[in-house]
Design goal:
CATH topology: Glutaredoxin
Helix content: 25-40%
Number of strands: 6
CATH architecture: 3-Layer(aba) Sandwich
Strand order of the largest sheet: 4-3-5-6
Largest sheet: 4 strands, mixed
CATH class: Alpha Beta
Number of domains: 1
Shape: globular
């Protein structure tokens, strides 16, 4: 079943089953508004615009677990992303990606694709998971990997 068995709340608080994205290639990213990597929002939006018609979905999950770099409310996060980066891909409510309160989706993602040091924990903001059209996690990209560097991997799955 892969990622399709999970649910998450949109940034507006509406529960969505990830099976909504069945048949699409999905890039799942934990994001933050006050991080040195925050400009990756621009690259993510470019990827989304470039490939959404071919079946790419990008799902942003704001997280405040790394240096408290996502301190705002969900509404503030949404406004920041739209005003500063023109983000049009779906954003979800703030979640924990590590620890006892980690969102079940992130428990699954990190189990399926641990980092190279075999730790399942997310190391920082903008860790990216690429999911194929069948809902299976096929790749993990650590925070320094720029969105445009992922384009060839996305191309292979589209």
């Amino acid at each position: 079943m892969g990622v399709y068995s999970f649910k998450a709340n949109t940034i507006k608080g509406e529960e969505v089953g990830l099976d909504t994205y069945r048949g699409q290639v999905v890039l799942i990213v934990n994001t933050a508004s006050k991080c040195g990597l925050t400009p990756q929002y621009e690259g993510l939006e470019k990827l989304y615009q470039q490939y959404k018609e071919r079946g790419l979905a990008i799902l942003g999950f704001p997280c405040n677990q790394f240096g408290a770099q996502e301190p705002g409310s969900n509404a503030e996060v949404e406004q920041f992303c739209q005003v500063n980066y023109g983000v049009s891909f779906p954003l979800f409510e703030k979640v924990d990606v590590n620890g006892d309160a980690r969102h079940p989706l992130y428990a699954y993602l990190t189990e399926e694709k641990p980092s190279e040091d075999e730790s399942s924990d997310i190391k920082w903001n903008f860790t990216k998971f690429l999911v194929d059209r069948d809902g299976q996690v096929v790749a993990r990209f650590e925070p320094p990997v720029a969105p445009e560097e992922i384009a060839p991997e996305i191309e292979k799955l589209l």
